[in-house]
Design brief:
With about 170 residues, the protein is an alpha+beta fold. It is built from five helices and eight strands; from the N terminus they run H-E-H-E-H-E-E-E-E-H-E-E-H. The longest helix has 12 residues.
Length: about 170
């Protein structure tokens, strides 16, 4: 499941997906698709809350304060478990592009934390101090058994490159 809108998926559909995964299916999710899978208990993991309380902020500052708490597109360092098949062939430390505020606690399932953000993850770009503290040592890729099936959660979109010369040349 990719990043997107999941409104049309009702409780019957969710039960069907849960059953399919439990009976041996493999669900792979990215970005908000991962949040959807966790919130609907397709896989039992923990979302780390990154919401900011704006109750005590003056009206004129709410928009800029909230805006500063968004990751518009920055590059972060990820530590990979290169013994896991998903990370096979990669270096132990890789840069990844990120443009969302979805964070996941490290999984307690055996060998499930394929990728995690490092203690000092920011390589390039902007992130608020509050979000940076929230991101440190959180899971970026979780791959684990779900009964008879499997779930792979990516906190980010592994296909998304956002910026690059190709866009400048062809568009």
């Amino acid at each position: 499941m990719t990043d997107g809108y999941f409104g049309p998926i009702d409780s019957t559909d969710i039960k069907t997906i849960k059953s399919w995964v439990s009976r041996g299916g493999c669900i792979i999710t990215t970005s908000s698709g991962s949040n959807w899978a966790v919130r609907n208990e397709i896989v039992k993991e923990q979302i780390k809350d990154s919401k900011m309380d704006t109750l005590d902020i003056a009206y004129e500052k709410v928009r800029t304060t909230r805006g500063a708490q968004q990751i518009g597109g920055s590059i972060f360092e990820l530590a990979l478990d290169t013994t896991h098949p998903i990370a096979f062939g990669y270096k132990k430390m890789i840069p990844v592009f990120r443009n969302n505020e979805y964070f996941y606690e490290l999984s307690i399932a055996d060998a499930a934390n394929v990728g995690r953000y490092t203690e000092a993850p920011l390589l390039s770009g902007y992130i608020s101090d509050r979000l940076l503290a929230n991101m440190k040592n959180t899971a970026a890729i979780i791959a684990r058994k779900v009964n008879g099936g499997y779930a792979v959660l990516f906190a980010d979109n592994p296909h998304f490159r956002h910026f690059g010369m190709v866009q400048m040349v062809y568009y």
